Amino acid sequence: MKLVRLRLRLIEEILDDKALNVKVILLVRDPRGLMQSRRHRHFCELSPDCWEPPLVCADLLSDYLAARHIMQKYPDRLMVIRFEDLTLKPNITTDQILKFLKLDARQAFDKFLKKHTTVEVAGVHSTFKVSRNIPFKWKHVLDFGYVNNLQMSCREAMRLWGYKMAHNETHMMSNEFHPIEDYTI
Ligand SMILES: *[C@@H]1O[C@H](CO)[C@@H](O)[C@H](O)[C@H]1NC(C)=O
Ligand SMILES: *[C@@H]1O[C@H](CO)[C@@H](O)[C@H](O)[C@H]1NC(C)=O
């Protein structure tokens, strides 16, 4: 199942039910990239927790705390992935996912990756995108004033998830600024 914007602390109830034998993968994204991508999504307009920075950041923070708690309780039932790592290192991340799921499906995955990460097809809902162009597009699309505001709301969540601050507009748009660093959970 793929669920969009289901908060992680609700997942604990499902994991507590031993009969279900569920594994969960949480996909996290840099709030700046998230907001850039959501600007074009109409589903977002009606619910403030989808686009209001303080609400988005509070969710990101509570997901981090919940993930840490759940991983201590069920170390082999929850996996956390940053969207940026998935798109920049699809091979390594795919191996980690398959290992976590104990699935031997490398061939099927390779086929899927090849098809879905190298061709561009129109439409924002398509998964057919050139993935290496996606994660940091916000650096060149978002206004620095907006980014600065978002970063203020998200300071703590960004620090925990390993997302680095842009200091000013020049810094934000420069190639030297690589927005992600290692993080631990
Ligand atoms: C990813 O893995 C596939 C096969 O598993 C290989 O053909 C491809 O060269 C790898 N790509 C990178 C960037 O390592
Ligand atoms: C922008 O930020 C960079 C990195 O912190 C700094 O070196 C530079 O002096 C800043 N530029 C301006 C105009 O403030």
From TrEMBL:
InterPro entries xref list: Gal/GlcNAc/GalNAc_ST, P-loop_NTPase, Sulfotransferase_dom
A molecular function (GO) term: N-acetylglucosamine 6-O-sulfotransferase activity
Gene Ontology biological process terms, A to Z: N-acetylglucosamine metabolic process; sulfur compound metabolic process
Domain Sulfotransferase: 19-162
SUPFAM superfamilies: P-loop containing nucleoside triphosphate hydrolases
PANTHER family per the UniProt record, alphabetical: CARBOHYDRATE SULFOTRANSFERASE, LD35051P-RELATED
Protein name: Sulfotransferase domain-containing protein
